[in-house]
């Protein structure tokens, strides 16, 4: 067993009381916390019914912690899985509420809905509100907008915005223990005009009523109800405090106020509470209720505040860059309101005899590249650099870290075109899942409206593509990984290997693609699809037959038979329909397994919402196909992703999704003033939509109105928008720091001019490049 470092030994020497541990990236936080838990199990003289409670952020960490603790206590001759408990806070809250559901106003048989179900319910409630109350929100639209654009915004933009604003407000209200009835009372008593808070309250009320009808709670309800139960039931609280005399909390920088309140109640007067985290890695603050200041305050006030500042992950020059980022954020950021986004300790390298020595120092392996690239050109340049690097380093790991998911999807397409192996499983859904969902969704979409020529044409693309795929698997003139999705085509599978098609095969592929485009265009121009599918008298196919090749005619006849078959299936229950379509398109086990998951998802959705027809169920598949929601397909996502399993491949990940991981070479991409604003003049901010007046951030303004109501204070419009800019800028500095510290040996940072070619390199890009040139580069 490796010997602990002196700083780790200080943590492991904990006997009791409060201890706040600030741990830098790569400092062995999990290694240390699991050993502390195992030591307490072995030495803390626990009674038979007592346990050390370890609270983690996500489910994937539960198994990781449990297996490590088991290994350690078995080495001491003790039974595994005894004397400790590892769980997420949501699991803990669920058990507390289950113990006394009556105190939360719930029945014994309540159930918990997941994020997908919650989103579906909220979408319906928000849509209903918007249809009846559109005028109450249009006052926030800018007057500098054409009638055409205004109609487009009202139809396509505002409905989604209303849902997102309401979702954020509901989470915020629940984290503050505020019910919809209480919020309505505040509005009534205030008498002030608060249109955003009124909108949030109305949708919140409808959402909770929908949950009540289903005898359900969401994850936010679990947390607030758990605190309510602990406040009321002293007997239960006393029993839990006795059961868990020690509480260890991981990733504490992502804890919210209400989550902290639950743990503080469980700890009680004994206060045997260890909180470990890194406030510099708090990158979820702007879209959750997490507050890194809570951990900072705890560390400052704790009985013990050891630091885990040594890290053997990165080479010294990368560590210098990370430390300089901390220094710059504290001392040199031009906006005082943003200063202090990062705090000490600085990262220290390990000693020579450390079991995890830092990689050799190579300042030349850090690069800042600004070539006034478009986003497409940036992706192309990075991909071109990675191809030769992978050939020279087949046993190493590398990653492309992108600020938004769409850029990751585009990067996957580029790598595929260049034959560069990659894995995209850290994106919300994998390319395999997206394509399987899209293929079936196109048919379901058509069956929901069989009179649409455009939908019929999209079906042809999917049907013909599946034919070519099947033939390609048996024909060496086709690359076996080639597929034809409407978005330009990405091959099936999460991890791609190089396509080695011969020039002749590639030429044939291009001809097939051209045929698919041409025939689908022809189908899209059918005036009345029924004259093609079920002709009675007038036959569209007979009228165009003279202009078709024999192959085209044969395919259109075969496609017609297939569409007739699909139409006959349309009366089946949705689960059976999806399985039948899946068997039509796929034969490989992985994609059939995905289809089975789609079938189950839609079957449950249909049972849960019996009023839904094919159009609404088709929307569910479209969400997966367009990469808007993670779907638990075959293969792992970030929950159990290990970069070491993907040596010789490019890992594509969002910057947020990369947290907790590390690679030998990292490409940070899209570091411009849009994705990394500094809250200085001329910056634009993602949460501020162009169609709102005065640059307002409606999510922030809604929460400000709720705060004003709860605190009995006046509300000043736009103040919350300004503070949200500062908060967002602070979080983006932390995101930059997190990405820098993902790199072990090589770090490449690039920027682009954005979709509309009007962005500049981010201020942090420019400042860190200067610091690198002056203080790090040789």
TrEMBL record:
Residues 350-364, 472-510 have a biased composition (Basic and acidic residues). GO terms for molecular function: 3'-5' DNA helicase activity; ATP binding; DNA binding; hydrolase activity. Residues 2-315 form the UvrD-like helicase ATP-binding domain. GO terms for biological process: recombinational repair. Keywords: ATP-binding, DNA-binding, Helicase, Hydrolase, Isomerase, Nucleotide-binding. PROSITE patterns: UVRD_HELICASE_ATP_BIND (PS51198), UVRD_HELICASE_CTER (PS51217). Pfam families: UvrD-helicase, UvrD_C. Residues 316-660 form the UvrD-like helicase C-terminal domain. It comes from the Bacteria. It catalyses: ATP + H2O = ADP + phosphate + H(+); Couples ATP hydrolysis with the unwinding of duplex DNA by translocating in the 3'-5' direction. This is DNA 3'-5' helicase. The lineage of its organism: Bacteria, Pseudomonadati, Rhodothermota, Rhodothermia, Rhodothermales.
């Amino acid at each position: 067993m490796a010997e602990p470092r002196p700083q780790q030994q200080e943590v492991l020497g904990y006997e009791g009381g409060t201890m706040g541990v600030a741990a830098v990236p790569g400092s062995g936080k999990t290694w240390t916390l699991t050993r502390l838990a195992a030591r307490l199990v072995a030495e803390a003289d626990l009674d038979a019914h007592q346990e050390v409670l370890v609270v983690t952020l996500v489910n994937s960490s539960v198994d990781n912690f449990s297996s490590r603790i088991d290994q350690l206590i078995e080495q001491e001759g003790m039974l595994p899985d005894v004397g400790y408990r590892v769980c997420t806070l949501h699991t803990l809250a669920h058990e507390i509420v289950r113990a006394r559901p009556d105190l939360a106003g719930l029945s014994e048989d309540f159930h918990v809905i997941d994020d997908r179900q919650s989103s579906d319910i909220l979408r319906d409630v928000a849509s209903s509100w918007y249809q009846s109350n559109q005028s109450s929100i249009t006052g926030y639209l800018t007057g500098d907008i054409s009638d055409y654009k205004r109609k487009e915004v009202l139809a396509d933009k505002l409905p989604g915005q209303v849902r997102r604003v309401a979702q954020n407000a509901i989470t915020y209200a629940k984290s503050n223990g505020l019910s919809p009835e209480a919020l309505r009372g505040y509005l009534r008593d205030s008498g002030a005009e608060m249109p955003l808070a009124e909108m949030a309250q109305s949708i919140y009320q409808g959402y909770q009523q929908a949950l009540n009808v289903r005898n359900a709670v969401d994850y936010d309800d679990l947390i607030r109800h758990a605190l309510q139960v602990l406040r009321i039931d002293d007997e239960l609280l006393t029993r839990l405090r006795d059961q868990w005399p020690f509480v260890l909390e991981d990733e504490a920088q992502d804890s919210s106020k209400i989550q902290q309140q639950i743990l503080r109640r469980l700890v009680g007067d004994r206060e045997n509470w260890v909180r470990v985290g890194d406030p510099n890695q708090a990158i979820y603050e702007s879209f959750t209720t997490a507050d890194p200041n809570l951990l900072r305050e705890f560390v400052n006030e704790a009985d013990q505040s050891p630091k885990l500042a040594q890290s053997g992950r990165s080479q010294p020059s990368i560590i210098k860059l990370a430390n300089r980022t901390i220094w710059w954020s504290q001392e040199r950021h031009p906006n005082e309101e943003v200063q202090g986004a990062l705090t000490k300790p600085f990262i220290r390298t390990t000693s020579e005899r450390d079991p995890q020595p830092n990689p050799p120092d190579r300042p030349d392996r850090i690069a800042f590249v600004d070539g006034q690239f478009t986003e497409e050109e940036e992706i192309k340049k990075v991909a071109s650099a990675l191809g030769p690097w992978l050939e020279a380093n087949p046993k190493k790991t590398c990653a492309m870290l992108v600020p938004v998911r769409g850029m990751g999807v585009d990067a996957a397409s580029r790598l595929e075109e260049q034959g560069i192996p990659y894995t995209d499983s850290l994106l919300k859904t994998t390319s395999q899942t997206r394509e399987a969902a899209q293929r079936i969704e196109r048919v379901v979409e058509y069956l929901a409206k069989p009179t649409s020529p455009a939908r019929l044409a999209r079906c042809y693309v999917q049907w013909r593509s599946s034919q070519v795929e099947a033939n390609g698997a048996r024909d060496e003139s086709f690359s076996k990984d080639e597929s034809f999705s409407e978005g330009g085509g990405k091959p099936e599978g999460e991890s791609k290997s190089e396509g080695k098609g011969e020039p002749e095969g590639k030429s044939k592929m291009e001809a097939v693609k051209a045929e698919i485009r041409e025939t689908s265009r022809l189908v899209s121009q059918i005036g009345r699809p029924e004259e093609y599918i079920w002709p009675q008298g007038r036959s569209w196919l007979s009228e165009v037959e003279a202009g078709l090749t024999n192959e085209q005619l044969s395919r259109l006849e075969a496609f017609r038979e297939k569409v007739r078959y699909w139409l006959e299936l349309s009366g089946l229950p949705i689960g059976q329909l999806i399985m039948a379509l899946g068997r039509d398109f796929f034969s490989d086990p992985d994609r059939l397994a995905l289809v089975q998951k789609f079938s189950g998802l839609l079957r449950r959705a249909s049972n849960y919402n019996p009023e839904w027809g094919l159009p609404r169920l088709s929307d569910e598949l479209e969400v997966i196909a367009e990469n808007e929601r993670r779907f638990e397909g075959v293969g792992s996502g970030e929950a159990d992703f290990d970069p070491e399993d993907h040596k010789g491949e490019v890992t594509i990940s969002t910057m947020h999704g990369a947290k907790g991981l590390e690679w030998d070479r990292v490409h940070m991409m899209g570091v411009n003033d849009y994705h990394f604003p500094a809250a200085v003049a001329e910056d634009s901010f993602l949460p501020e939509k162009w169609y709102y007046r005065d640059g307002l951030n409606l999510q922030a303004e809604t929460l400000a109105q709720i705060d004003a109501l709860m605190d009995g204070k006046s509300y000043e419009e736009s103040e919350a928008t300004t503070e949200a800019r500062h908060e967002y800028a602070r979080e983006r500095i932390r995101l930059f720091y997190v990405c820098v510290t993902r790199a072990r040996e090589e770090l490449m940072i690039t920027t682009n001019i954005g979709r509309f070619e009007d962005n500049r390199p981010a201020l942090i890009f420019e400042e860190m490049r200067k610091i690198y040139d002056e203080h790090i580069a040789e």
